[in-house]
């Protein structure tokens, strides 16, 4: 296994890529870890046929924190600092402004 050094001044590190020993593993992202959404369901833009009320890609670049660890479906619950509802997106999760997100769609903030 190759260990890479992460220069924290360089900004966030993509989860799922090789990371420094001082950053959490994508499978062990602790609650309260600050993250930013870099993609949604593995892509960085909405499909052309995407309706406004299904455009979760509008959250790309938005920050939040993990409020629930990895679940059985391979997702973490992220509470966004931005109002998901004000973006016109449905949000039926147990925490206001939260969505279940694949760890590979997130970057850890320093």
Question: How does this structure look, described?
Answer:
This protein is mainly β. 0% of the residues lie in helices and 22% in strands. The protein contains no helices and six strands. It has strands at 13-14, 34-37, 63-68, 76-80, 98-101, 106-108. It has a six-stranded antiparallel β-sheet with strand order 1-6-2-3-4-5, with no helix packed on it. A hairpin with a 7-residue loop joins strand 3 and strand 4. It is globular. Mean pLDDT is 83; it is low at 1-10 and 12-21.
Order of helices and strands: EEEEEE
Biggest pleated sheet: 6 strands, antiparallel
pLDDT averaged residue by residue = 83
In the predicted model, the low-confidence regions spanning at least 5 consecutive residues are 1-10, 12-21
Q: Find the structural class using helix and strand composition.
A: mainly beta
- What is the terminal separation in angstroms? 23 Å
Which range does the strand content fall in? 15-25%
What share of residues is helical? under 10%
The oligomeric state of the chains shown is single chain
In total, the number of strands is 6
- Broad shape: globular
Rg, nearest Å: 14 Å
Strand order of the largest sheet: 1-6-2-3-4-5
Helical stretch count? 0
Keywords:
six-stranded antiparallel beta sheet, 110 residues
List the helices and strands and how they pair.
Elements: E1 13-14, E2 34-37, E3 63-68, E4 76-80, E5 98-101, E6 106-108
Antiparallel strand pairs: 1-6, 2-3, 2-6, 3-4, 4-5
